[in-house]
Amino acid sequence: MNKTASISTPTIVALQMCSGLNPDDNIANLKRALKTLPATRPLLVCLPEAFLVFSKSGSDTLLVAKQVERYKLQLSELCQHHNIWLNAGTMPEPFNEHKYHAASHLLNNQGELVATYNKIHLFDVNVDDKTGSYRESDFTQAGSDVVVVDSPFGKIGLTVCYDLRFSGLFNDLARQGAEIILVPSAFTVVTGQAHWQPLLAARAIETQCYVVAAAQHGTHENGRQTYGHSIIISPWGNTLSELPTGTGFISCHADLDQLQKIRRDMPVQSHQRFREHLL
C-alpha cells in the first residue's frame, strides 16, 4: 500500500469487497470499512461492481432495484457523515418492469448525486469456470451515455468492468477531458488471470489517465468466484498500488501536474488519426 498523502492532498481509495446476497449486510460491511480509511480530505472512495448485492439471478437483483432508493439515501448519509466523495460501484436502477440499469453513481461529500453512468457493454459470454455462461443482457438494460464529471480529484470518467475491453469508450472519455477513469469490477477468475492487468495498463497508457479499479474478490454466497486484484495505475502505465486478495483498500494521490507533463511530452490525443464511433 502506498504512503498516505499530506493532509491537503486529494486522495483516491479503491475498496475491495466480497459482496453477498443481502444488501443490508453489504451496506453494514461498507460502514465498517469506511471507519478504517485515511483521514485525509478530500477523499474519493471507489466501490466495486455489484457492491450492493451479488445475487444468484438477475430476477433477484431486479427485486433489489425496486427498493434501491433507500440504499442511495444511506449512501448519501455516509458521504455527509464521513465527508467523502463516493463512486458507488454499481447499483441496480429500475429501467422497466423487467430490466434494470447497472448504474455507477458518483456522490459528493454533501451526499449529492453528481453523475450517473449506466454500463454500456454487457457481459454475454461463455467462460471456462463453474458458472460457464453469463448473460447479463437478460435483465440488464445497456446504457448509451459517456460520462465525464469535474471533481476535486480531477476530471473523472466512469466505466464498469466489461467496458474495459472496449478502447473506444476509454478514448472517448479521454477526448472529453478525463484524467481519472474508474473501473468498478467483478472479473471472473479465469478472465482476470488472463487479461485484467494487461487491459487496465493498456487503457491507462493509451488514454494517459489514472485508472482506478475497485474489484470484488473471493467466493461469494451465490457460488461465483471473482478475481480481486484491485489496482491503481498511473498515466505512464505504472502500478501504484494493488490488493491481490482479501478485502481492504488501496490508495493513491493523482498527480495531475505529472499527468499534464506526460500529455505534453507525448501528445497522443492530438496525434490520433482515428475517431471511433461508440454506438
Task: Briefly summarize what is shown.
Mean pLDDT is 95; it is low at 1-7.
List the helices and strands and how they pair.
Layout: E1 11-16, H1 23-34, E2 43-46, H2 58-65, H3 68-82, E3 85-87, E4 91-94, E5 100-107, E6 113-118, E7 124-126, E8 133-135, E9 148-149, E10 156-158, H4 167-175, E11 180-182, H5 189-207, E12 210-213, E13 217-219, E14 225-227, E15 230-233, E16 239-243, E17 248-252, H6 256-265, H7 268-271
Parallel strand pairs: 1-2, 2-3, 10-11, 11-12
Antiparallel strand pairs: 1-17, 3-5, 4-5, 5-6, 7-8, 9-10, 12-15, 13-14, 15-16
Helix pairs in contact: 1-3
Mean pLDDT rating: 95
Encode the helix/strand succession as letters: EHEHHEEEEEEEEHEHEEEEEEHH
Strand content: 15-25%
> Got a strand count?
17
**Strand count, sense and closure of the main sheet?**
7 strands, mixed
The helix tally amounts to 7
Distance between the termini: 38 Å
Q: Tell me, what's the shape?
A: globular
Share of helix among residues?
25-40%
Radius of gyration: 17 Å
Low-confidence stretches: 1-7
Query: Which structural category fits the helices and strands?
Result: alpha+beta
Question: What can you see in these coordinates?
Answer:
There is one protein chain. The chain is of the alpha+beta class and 279 residues long. The chain contains seven helices and 17 strands. The strands form four sheets. Strands 1, 2, 3, 4, 5, 6 and 17 form a seven-stranded mixed β-sheet that branches. A six-stranded mixed β-sheet has the order 9-10-11-12-15-16, covered by helices on one side. The protein has a two-stranded antiparallel sheet with strand order 7-8. Helix 1 packs parallel to helix 3 (68-82). The longest helix is centred in the C-terminal third of the chain and has 19 residues, at 189-207. The chain is globular and about 50 Å long.
